[in-house]
Amino acid sequence: MTSLAITDGLLCLIAAAAVVTNRLPLAFRMGSALLAVTAGLGVLRFSDLLPLPTLHSFFSTLSSSSAFLLMAVSSVWTSSAGATRAKYASILLIVSGAVGFVMVDLFELTRFGQVVAVLCVLQIIVYAARHKLLSALVGAVALELGFILFATGQRVPNLLQPGDFLHLLTAAGLALLVWYHRHAPHASP
Known about the structure:
Number of domains: 1
């Protein structure tokens, strides 16, 4: 089993825990569900139990275009219809996913989803810094750091690959954002 399977497994567990946490905004849970499915498929792919590279790639593209957008909407505009109502969160998911696939497949902008993810998380950083929300700020910075280390191909020889940094820092950032939402004034009891 490769390190990628192990770190994807950790991300899958944390994202799945976020999905079943009722106190989180609906859009955040939807974004977490996308990450959980993507990470679960990554475990299957990188452990060679059931390698489905095309399906993992599909969900990776969808997650980068949609999951972080849903998380940003629910973190910055916590009481908006897009964050709290299934109809509008679903529309946001479908439209952002469709735009992402059009940009990647039709216009061959392979980094489009990654740019969207970076910009969405940057929005969370700016919001958290302005409102002095430490756990949200540290969580979003962890997400951005994961993106940067992955994009620059950083690795620890014989231990961690670039994808491991993405998985580990996404898991840490997600956990901190969950903590923020559970303890924020907008959280439902």
